[in-house]
């Protein structure tokens, strides 16, 4: 519990003021988020959960794109949730929770989600493999887990990669270069299907796990 609390405090400290300019500044390097929203295609009236919802930017886009869906979000940072609640109002149910240890049914009264989203959040979670497994466990039959995050930038200039890593480190962000392997292992263990692609010359990576009916 002490580690969880310290990480929550770290995130609150990091984003207490950053949250005020987060959406404006991150639009330039959190690439692919609108593509994820387009690819999400939840069923009409479906339940969509974003883990690490931050300021609520993605959930607001999902609400506009797929009206009628029930939207849920969780984040470990109370500061980020302040911005999310102001942005979303009654359009989404938001709670403070740890991505590595939560019960979606207990938190939201929803047994299984049609879509679960992790967008540039695993790179900020120390025990990110556990968070990934927890996210997969929330899926309803035929549900999909959409994961978007930084790649290894291997096809980009070395100087750019070094500058980006240094900048991300200031915000306790570390690209998960073995994301594909971890998603594949979870998919194989639970009989799921996996689609995975590198985006923008390996700047980002995007994986979708589908729970087979």
Automatic annotation (TrEMBL):
Q: Give the gene name.
A: rebM
| PANTHER family reported for this sequence | METHYLTRANSFERASE (PTHR43591)
- Pfam families (UniProt xref): Methyltransf_25
Name the Gene3D superfamilies on file.
Answer: Vaccinia Virus protein VP39
Ranges for domain Methyltransferase come to 48-143
Lyase is among the record's keywords: no
Q: What is this protein called?
A: Demethylrebeccamycin-D-glucose O-methyltransferase
- One MF annotation (Gene Ontology) recorded for this entry: demethylrebeccamycin--D-glucose O-methyltransferase activity
Q: Mind telling me which InterPro entries this protein's record contains?
A: Methyltransf_25, SAM-dependent_MTases_sf
EC class of the enzyme, as a word: transferase
According to its UniProt entry, one GO biological process term is: methylation
Instruction: Classify the source by domain of life.
Output: Bacteria
The protein's Enzyme Commission number: 2.1.1.164
Q: Does the keyword Ribosomal protein apply?
A: no
Supply the alphabetized keyword list.
Methyltransferase, Transferase
